[in-house]
Amino acid sequence: MVLRVGGRDAAQQPWCCAPLAELQCITTELQRNTLVLLWRVVGGCQGCYGESSGGRCCIGASPEAIGAAMKHHRATGVVLEHRPDHRVPRSAAMELRRVPIGKTFETRDPRTGDVIASIAEGDKEDVDLAVKAAREAFDHGKWPRMPGSERGRIMMKYADLVEQHAEELTLLESLDAGKPRTVTRVVDIGTSATSLRYFAGAADKIHGETLKMSTQFQGHTLREPMGVAGLIIPWNFPAIMFFCKVAPALAAGCTMVVKPAEQTPLSALYFAHFAKQAGVPDGVINVITGFGPTAGAAIASHMDVDMVSFTGSTAVGRLIMEASARSNLKPVSLELGGKSPLIIFEDADVDLAVDLSISANFFNKGEACLAASRVYLQEGIYDRFVKKLADRMESWVVGDPFDPRVNQGPQVNKEQYEKVLSYIDHGKREGANVLTGGKPCGQRGYYIEPTVFTEVKGIPEQDDMIIAKEEIFGPVMCLMKFRTVEEVIAKANDTRYGLAAGVVTKDIDVANRMTRSIRAGVVWVNCYFAMDADCPFGGRKMSGFGKDASMHALDKFLAVKAVVTPVYDSPWL
């Protein structure tokens, strides 16, 4: 594989396509009652500002000015600079009010490990304030009472703003999460706008049913917003998952308290600003930055939160469910972990199979709950597949996510980096063979070589390896053999998870049998990661329950109410 850590084959400094001018994002603050991102140009650019060093400050600039500056400089290696006098507020409620700064926590650049921002740490008191604002907006505000068509119009404007500022959002997301910039622009930010538009179109199509009752009564159902929704966002897809939850909640007429992951909090604050610009009323969206055991737990256990939608690990999902049950028995939707199988039959196109296995495991650095880290190969294709896979991995590029040549950036933080390396060490100690990768790379940052293990003893063998049964959440692929359809069905299902699966075959009968036999929320045939706003996404077993995306996601933010009235002397009974 090609390692371009730091973006250059030899150097370790961040890669930048415009070396004379690099934009630094200083921080986020509430200024003049508006949430703005503050940027400055550094490194000097005589062609732009006539200054050989230092650059010109853009403090207080509008998002439009920021975007223009970014595009003008074609900046790539964007870095947030911590300044104690410019700290991110712990709560970005839609009132966008100034709040006192108390405890803070640091967020770090995964390319280097350096601190990029100081973020205010929200606690139970802040959650109480945010829930109070959301409750007031729901009980007395206009958003739940607004015609669906008007909510949809505002959401369409919201989507327009996301697209208009796609460049800034791409830079933030890539910086915060270590995602390759080229992919982030199309997948993460593009999908975010698409989700908003999809649910904007659904906002005026929420309707009930007429009931044919057997006695002298007539009935119908109403579908009403659930109330205040607690939305807890994961760190691996901050933008996508923000709108997977916020968009259907908005369409339903709910108000909400949103907690982004502490590892990747930046884009959620910017999204709150755009909601305000689009016309979402005060108190509808309330963003709290903080940690799961404090802010997240306070949301899950709050007596005035009416439902919770959570995406994250199975262990934390269990805690969310327990806290919700112990408080006001609020309903929950949980999208949790996975250990998905990719099953490749011997009649498959081997080039397609290799392509799918790479994307199913190394997309987003393997930080995807849907990742198919269990790759089952029928014996007749195993050797050809392994050779082609090894050849393909020779051209895989690991490095700075702002380098357009890079396929894989750094893991999100040091904790995740060390966790993935520990799983790789487990695999080696348990006897698996390393085909490619298996090591960290680079002098700085959280870069790991994409790792492929062969000779893996997998489920349901008695001596199955840890790497074959536990979710790794990193760039690690396990290859295992099988002989028959019956054998691989048993292996695919012998896991506590049930999130996704993939099948690669030219035989439609085999494909049909597999899709009906695998217990998972989604099964892809001759493709992987084929997602759409209209495709329900969610798991079974310990991968959780409830759906993100599609009209099924809208349903979880709606309560069904039956209305019954008597009918006198009707000729139609």
From TrEMBL:
Keywords: NAD, Oxidoreductase. One of its GO terms (molecular function) is aldehyde dehydrogenase [NAD(P)+] activity. Residues 103-563 form the Aldehyde dehydrogenase domain. The active site is at 335. Pfam families: Aldedh. The keyword Oxidoreductase applies. SUPFAM superfamilies: ALDH-like. It comes from the Eukaryota. It catalyses: octanal + NADP(+) + H2O = octanoate + NADPH + 2 H(+). Homotetramer. Belongs to the aldehyde dehydrogenase family. This is Aldehyde dehydrogenase 1.
